[in-house]
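FAQ: What does the model actually see?

It sees only this:
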Amino acid sequence: MLEGASKLRPTLRVIGNLLSTRCDAARLYHLCRELELPRVLLGLAGQVLDSAGTMQPWSITVLTDLVAVTTGYFTSDFNQERSIARGSLEIFAEAARLFLALLPRLLAQPMDGERRLQQQSVVGFTLLCESMDGSCSSVAGPFYAGLCAEHHLLLDTLLQGASGSVKEAKTTQEQSERLADIFMAALASACSIPLGRGGCREAKKQVAQHVAQMLAETPQVLGQLLEKLVRPTCSLNGLKILYAACHVSQSLCHLLEMGPQVPGALAQLLKGEIPMPEPVRGQAQEATLHLLSLLTLQLQAPPPGLDVVALEAGELFTRSAIVSLVSAAGFLLTQLRQHGVAVDLGGEEATAALTNALTARAQLCLPPPLGTGLYDGLLFFLLELLAQEEGVGTWGFAGSELWDITWHRVAAALGLARGEPEMESETPRPGQPTPEPDWNLISPQGTLLFLNLALLVFTREPHLCLGQLAQPSSLTLATLRKLLSPDFLLHLTQTQAGEDGDPGLVPAVVLHTCQLLCFPFAVEVDEETLARMVEAASEAEIPAHLLQACCHHLPLPATELPLSLLCHLALRDERAAGQFVAVASEPAVTFLSSVLLGTHAQPTYQLLALLAQVARASSAHLPFLHGLLGGSDGAGQALSQLLGHPEPLVRAGSCSLVGNLLRHRLGLPGGLAGLLERLLELLGDPDGAVRRAAIFAVGNAAYQAGGLAQGLAQAMPCVVRLLGDPQARTRSNAASALGNLGRNSAELADVLIQNEVPRLLLHCACHDSQPAVREAALIALRALSRQPGIRQSRCPDPHRPARRGQVQGHGRAKGIPAAPGCCPQ
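And it is asked to produce this:
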């Protein structure tokens, strides 16, 4: 076997050197396939371990070489790429499983002078974990789950080795410390939180829970680990282990809070007093800040060593050029401020630090606490800064460079823009896959935080912000469109699945975005600017996205605001109504039906108002409306139910919808007769808004009267009575309705005369205080004068020719049409 081993070693060196080049992933993969790697390597290692010659030095050397080449395989790029070859990931997963099974036996072998086999085996495990973190969830998840469930003794061994508890008599102090550092790195790679939101996070959380439990139950091991925080070669990995374990164990957080050596060690790390290379020092400072923020969040109290922490965090925030370090410091400072610690957020210095941090490219060392993103800390700090009474908020922040850069960075993180902050947004072309948001940069909670920040700025300086909503190509509008898009909301919803998810986050993002889009309708804006904003919203397909967001991501009571926004857009732009109808598929119709017939009055009213605008926009939308209301035969039944709703605003909205449907000749085929009686009853409703909408609907019914003349004749006294209603719009609608009754049915002439309609209309035309009512009365009189019976009833009066001439002349001067048509709402 010794001869075979001597021949094998050169071959292993060649293969190892080839794998270490990482030159061409496809060729290296095919080489491994031809050589049946790593199955052959792991098989040989198993045979050597099973042989009786394990105690011989050559066997340790061969095992070390086999593990080294296997490690080269684990770190190869083709294990991260599905496109290399079908089955490559399956081979990788199986090799990882076999290696885990061999690892305890490798670590238990007799040690040579330099303990190379132990070192190489632990290094191989470390690099395997790093490769797993970058692999797909279907491979990484089962690996870490198996590590925790089947190989927890291996984790215990790594923890013992990392703390320096395992010592050999023949080992020097330097060798023991070096081996402890290697064990520490392995344990950190096994339990540390991976960047991104891949499927292995949950499985690694189980590993972290096991490590946290071991640390909490063995104070000696925890103390030894804490002592190593000040050792330059292992402090960063020690911080990673504690950071991951504190995420899943509040008891460990309490132990760290009480640990006497913790404040001093963390203070040294923050100050940069521990000698280590510059990049590592920055990473250690970032990890320390994150650990302190995590302790503050978990314990709901300021961390240990408060004075030093606040001072050093402030220095790092304003002086550091590392984006992730500035963000971590900002996050901690705002946490301290929220717990009552006096923290000077600064003014111009803080603003300059934020601008520099958002301008520079960012690279994370560790994911921020509890799933937050890199920019979350910066946004959190900025929100606190703006919330102060003095400072940035008083000098036109909405027009500042920092505000512009913030929008660009958030847009890029959400997957909308690419490139430097000064570049304008780029939206994917039709058919292109939409990039997934980079949750490392901005978390789902950070997205909501940004929207809170935007709402604060919009509220303080609306006129500086609204101009961006009037430009179809603006980054502001493109970002808001992205936040409402189905693909983004799907990604956002997926992040909230599981125990730790927040079911209220997605609805909050939708509603905050709607609030920003509602600003043009909530402040004074000239009509031209408002028209451009509405046009830009339609071009950005905001109406379509609003309906889809309501259907799939909002509870029914929360749909009032987006439906109201849809109504405002449809009122001012027919394209908005068209988009609404175009995306109303079967799920949308089901949702809309549930809103219409639901128990929540406000969403029902907003939807009725929206449907009224849809009906008003075009007769092409009638099939959609009929289908939504239960078909042309069932529409009357649904509307009749709504007209009898206990809430006045729903009754008013239902009347308005009926009135707009009746603008079209086939607006309610087969359903009008059944609704007429209900409409006529509502003419006497105690609520003024209901009466106004009801007379509007009755007026349009009169315009389309057909065979309903006799039914409408019975309502004549009620309509006449509304000429004296307190609301001018109701009086105007009543006058128009009377004109329509006279225009469309000669047989109603006697009823009109009996109810003194011509005289009362003439009185309104002469004496009503509102010009709109006087004009509506004149138009109605013109329509009535077309009926011979009414004209004859008025002509014999010799005392009124002058007044009649005055009225007709007034009508001609105003350009009043001969026929009134449908009532205005």
